[in-house]
Amino acid sequence: MNATTTAIATVENVDAEETLSFSIREGRIHNEFYRKGPVAAHLVLTSGLQPRLVTAFPAGNSGVSLWCLPGAEDVEWGAVEHLYDFTETEVGDQPRRGISADLQLQGEGLTITRAVLGSVRSIRDFMHTQELPEALDCQWQIVGNQVIWQRHRIDGQGSYKLAITVTSGTIRETPGGNLQLESEQGVLKFRLVALTGEPPLTPIDLPQLLNDKAIGSITSRKILSFLTYEEKMLAGSWQYLTYFGRDTLMSVRLLMPVLTTPAIEAALGAVLERIADDGQIAHEEDIGEFAVLHRRDDTSADPIYDYNMVDDNFMLAPVIAHYLLDHPGGMKRRQMFLSKRDQCGRSYQELLIRNLEFVVESSKQFAKEPGIQHLIALKDNYPVGEWRDSHEGLGWGRIAYNVNGVFVPAALTAVARLIKTPELSEAKSKLPASEHILEQGQTWQQQAPTFFEAKVCAQSAMRRQSEFAKTLGVPVVESISEESELRYYAIALHDDGSQVPVLNSDFGFEMLFGSPSADVLEAVVYTLMQPFPMGLVSPVGLMVANPVLGDQELRDIFTAGHYHGTVIWSWQQALFVAGLQQQLNRCDLPEKTLACLREAEQRVWKVIRASRHMQNSELWSWSCDNGSYQTQPFGQREEDVTESNAAQLWSTVFLGLDSPSGD
């Protein structure tokens, strides 16, 4: 059946609507981003021995994709041409919106094994498992030089379509049941149409998103715009193209100086509107078809929220306190913002108080009896719970330093501040007095970090570094004296209280949200600022973890191929320098400490500038040849466990950070 006989296709080309269009190339992956009016799409083209095509839509976190067999030789996607918005309306159905583009491939062609249409979550799961629920199966239709995949959502509420019209090459079915798109004289050309029937989001265009204080690249601005909507901020594209609570809160906090008030309140409102009845913060959401699929025996498409994380429960209070109590715009709009209501009629004040109650209640036992058994651990039968959310991200630990040593005390301090405001007077009848909450927070601040305090003598550290460097094939650094002692906070604890001895970048949270002593600042910053493989500073960026002080078992799960291993996350570098700037603004630190912090700031900015071409990526890895480090896109090597996003929300936060040199 030829789709052109059953549908009316139009190009939504309204001059009044801003067009957002940009490209990002990372290694073998070419990314095209496009948004105009209700149409927004990210086209992902992967070259190499096993090419791939994905188009992801912010609408419903949906997408369409093609998966291919490995070929005998590399193929290479060429430039994308004539990319524009496209709408198709079938009789009696809702419109399907997306993009049309002319594509070309240099090489033998494509052997397509499967098309996956539907939720980005389904496409992402298929990428990792090569398995697909039977309900999502989609067969092709060939009509002349055109092949079409299309299907309705499993509950009938919308549909998806992917169509290819070959303009140079041929289409044929192989004896093995696959689809062969053969090139002509080494070039395959076709027109792509990729569509979704999911309801579109409402974009916040660049002029309404950032104020005149924003700095940084135009690409970062465009990425932020592509990921920001009136309904919510999206975590990253292509794989995380929907709401993530932690990502939203950290991004808003770091971008707050340069975001417009409507943008800040839209993002914070999205977090508040997803708060559970018990006050916990939603981490992620299953929406659209994935929500229907998740329920299995229920056709409801209402969002399903994930409340399994523990860190974001303690992030909201300090972030929203910074907006309502410290930010000029937030202070002026405090009453107006807290009086807003969600679709169920609940005020933001009511929703916020739920979380404040959760913070105080869940942390009170430790304040009464400080002990490991009363720290905040990952939830039972759930392997992850904070930003290092790969299964091995905490070295199999269950009690995270960042949650207990930073976020809980910061949250309690913020609660004590917030309930003093007249706009949150209702909280006074539900919570202890602010003085009592402040004391509770001080107990956490003084006692919780002590369980994570770790140190190693210089002689032992150098011996371990020598062993580690040899296995990695990197140079040993001679940076510490024999009299030195390295002090740091272990990344996590096991249930028995034993430490996971991994150097980590999470002290950046403490510098941004806390007020550590001069002694702690000097000691921990000194350790972390050691050159890799002794510390975290490498020529290609600030590592988020370093198992140099651990055993071989730890080193095996914190490699350059692990999601939270010896790799660089862009936003963690931004967090660290933002934390350093926060501490440098204090008036109670001696000059010796400030000098240490200024030196660290210069050192981190140096490696940030050296890897600036990767700055918008979610994360990246590295290689070292004859002592020379090189950045490597994460996810494009056999040893990489997953794939990095080319556009990540919290990687745009450099828009709100100015380097000491001003560049």
Explain the overall architecture:
With 663 residues, the chain is an alpha+beta fold. The protein contains 17 helices and 32 strands. The protein has three domains: 194 residues, no CATH class; 243 residues, no CATH class; 193 residues, no CATH class. Helix 13 packs across helix 16. The longest helix is centred in the middle third of the chain and has 21 residues. The radius of gyration is 26 Å and the shape is globular. The termini are far apart. The N terminus is likely disordered.
Helix-strand layout with pairing:
Elements: E1 7-10, E2 19-26, E3 29-36, E4 39-46, E5 52-57, E6 62-68, E7 76-77, E8 81-90, E9 96-106, E10 109-119, H1 120-129, E11 140-143, E12 146-152, E13 159-168, E14 170-173, E15 179-182, E16 187-196, H2 206-209, H3 218-226, E17 236-237, H4 245-255, H5 261-272, E18 284-286, H6 288-295, E19 304-306, H7 316-326, H8 328-338, H9 348-368, E20 399-400, H10 401-418, H11 434-447, E21 453-457, H12 458-472, E22 485-489, E23 492-493, E24 499-500, E25 503-504, H13 507-513, H14 518-528, E26 537-538, E27 541-542, E28 545-546, H15 552-557, E29 568-569, H16 570-584, H17 591-610, E30 619-625, E31 628-633, E32 647-648
Antiparallel strand pairs: 1-8, 2-3, 3-4, 4-5, 5-6, 6-10, 7-9, 8-9, 9-16, 10-15, 11-12, 12-13, 13-16, 14-15, 17-32, 18-19, 20-23, 21-22, 23-24, 25-28, 26-27, 29-30, 30-31
